[in-house]
Amino acid sequence: MFNLHVAFRFLREGRSQTALILFGITLGIAVQVFLNSLIVGLQRNLIEQTVGSSPHLTASMPDLVPSPLLPAEDGKPVLTRVVSNEGNVKPIRDGAFLIDQLRKTRAFTVINPVARGSGFVLQGNKSLPIVLQGFDLEAADRLYEIRSRVTSGRFEVGGNKVLVGKELAAKLRLDIGGSLRITVPSGATDLFTVGGIFDLESQPVNETWVVISLARAQILYGLEGGLTEIELQVDDVFSAARQAKDLRRSFDGLQWLSWQETNAALLSALRSQSSSSYMIQLFVLLSVTLGIASVLAVSVVQKSRQIGILKALGTRTRSVGRIFIVQGAVLGLAGSLLGTLAGWGLIKLFMTLRTSAGGAGLFPIRVEFGALAVSVAVATAAGTLAAFLPARRAARLNPIEVIRNG
Amino acid sequence: MAELLALRNIEKIYGRVVPIPALRGVSLTVAEGEYTALIGRSGSGKSTLLNIIGTLDRPTSGEIAFDGRDLFAQDDDTLALFRNRSLGFIFQYHYLLPEFTAQENVLLPYRIFHGRAEGAVVRRARELIDRVGVGRRMNNRSTTLSGGEQQRIAIARALINNPRLILADEPTGNLDHETGEAVKTLLREINREMKTTFLVVTHDRHIAAGCDRVVEIDDGRIVSDMRTADFSEDENWRRLAPCHCRERRDGPSA
User: Fold this and answer.
1) Domain ranges for chain B
2) Interface of A with B in 283-322 (CB under 8 A)
3) Cβ within 8 Å, pair B100-A317
4) Among the listed residues A318, A319, A285, A289, the one whose alpha carbon sits nearest the alpha carbon of residue A385
């Protein structure tokens, strides 16, 4: 209690010194907060762009493995002819049951059953490769956000009505009501009508996607009510890999792939970016800590008279140490509070400058309360830690030295 | 009068490589309520002795009993508590904390022990500051006070916890003659009013002559121990005159 009082009084009386070190801590923490928010914002944006409108988890049937009809027995050579079954689609037969089970876990925000296949659009001499997306339109919209990006026509499929991408429509000079002839690998050909044109802001998608109803695709590809894939989204994108592992255990007949497995390069880039950012933050924090330590070390020398007299008057060794520990903690806390405030200001400034310079913001930076709280807590702990050496020195100071030398 | 302090054969040797003895076997008893002067040349060991009695320093050998309790058998924390509860210090250079006001300085010893100071003790602090004659400036920052005022505040601070023994090291050594006289008178009055035991290290034979008892130290030993009441004023003056307290007041302290 009294130690606290003395600590505050020492800080208050050492005005310029306290102000300088506070400024230093503020600057350091501001940079740390700014850098952290920038990197986190950048990464979140990258991930959002990568997985925001795509499945986090995909279930499909594993490809058939070519195998001989007669298994080889030990020591007896068997002559077999293995027929590759490439191109054979093995559908998910129990899709409805599976979707029901997945829905019950309540772990997924989107469950999108898909019957997908390749094909060609034929028009005169033109033959354009396409991807036929057999969608349950409502579920698919939650994943791909198609409805809001339909540029003309209506957001509906059914019968032979389809939605086509902007580029494809342009290439084929198709408009609403126009017809297109589609051939699938099995040889089946059918005539479809354009019901709507969408723009999903991606050239390959706009060039190749033809969205048809799930039922129509199942018939076209002879899936007999089966699905080629089930696409899932989860709340926390980073939980996808763990979910995939769980799902592999529960439904081991299927092949489960998380977005992390299909985007390993991106993730490793993000990781190295994170670690370099942490490195910088660590060094910033380290210099803040050293700053506090050196200021307190100087303060112990400056206040040696006061320490001596306090000890002569009966302050215990531990209490003397505490006076400086408290100063370290207070400097760390106050400096980091100011620093997070300044860092927040810096981010605001950065956003304003960037929007005014380049029009639309490149990516949003969100300041997270949790991250700020961590910064404050870590800086306070660092300040306390920094005070240990000076505090020990103060505690060990012999009052006699001061009293004898005046 | 009851015995408050008993020193038995105190020795203090400084330095390890070249031992320099500062005290060579000092034995002394001080009675409760006694006002004793400790005189001697610079380097005679009187300040060393005072610091050892004040438990700021430990003797190389020997014992000190305070009220029958062996002081140096205690650990540092217990000694800190002892200093806080039973001793009052008045130093030559006043040693107020510049960060605090006069009143806060007076309350320091109380707050070191109790944490907060409220009500009765604050009133007592004010009374003490009034008593030492700095009442008008008790809320001033201690650095704005004059030397005499600071020393008076230090006296009030030494008294706040009602100590059994007050140790004063050259209390007037840093003050001009007139102020020194006033402080000297004040200490004597407090001794009479509050029955506090005083041990005063001094160069000043005016102070020494006004004490109950004068102990002279030379080269780490007690060389004379006299009671002023046993002699006439002139005789005391004569006896003190040849002692080694003729150095300038602002001279070095031992």
Assistant:
1) 3-240
2) 305-306, 308-319
3) no
4) A289
Q: Which residue in B has a C-alpha nearest to residue A305's C-alpha?
A: B95
Q: Kindly state the DSSP code that residue A313 receives in the 8-state scheme.
A: T
Write the secondary structure of chain B as one string of H (helix), E (strand) and C (coil): CCEEEEEEEEEEEECCCCCEEEEEEEEEEEECCCEEEEECCCCCCHHHHHHHHCCCCCCCEEEEEECCEEHHHCCHHHHHHHHHHHEEEECCCCCCCCCCEHHHHHHHHHHHHHCCCCCHHHHHHHHHHHHCCCHHHCCCEHHHCCHHHHHHHHHHHHHCCCCCEEEEECCCCCCCHHHHHHHHHHHHHHHHHHCCEEEEECCCHHHHHCCCEEEEEECCEEEEEEEHHHCCHHHHHHHHCCCCCCCCCCCCCC
**CATH no., domain B3-240:** 3.40.50.300
Distance between CA atoms of residues B25 and B19, nearest Å: 15
Cβ neighbours of B84 in A, within 8 Å: 313-315
* Cβ neighbourhood burial of A183 (10 Å; 0-12, 13-18, 19+): middle
Q: A311 contacts in B (CB within 8 Å)?
A: 80
Contacts of B77 in chain A (CB under 8 A): 316-318
ipTM: 0.87
Question: Rounded to the nearest 5°, which phi and psi values hold at B20?
Answer: -115, 110
pLDDT digits (tens, 9 = 90+) for A268-311: 988 898 899 999 999 999 999 999 999 999 999 888 889 999 99
Contact criterion met (CB < 8 Å) for B51 and A316:
no
Q: What is the pTM of this model?
A: 0.75
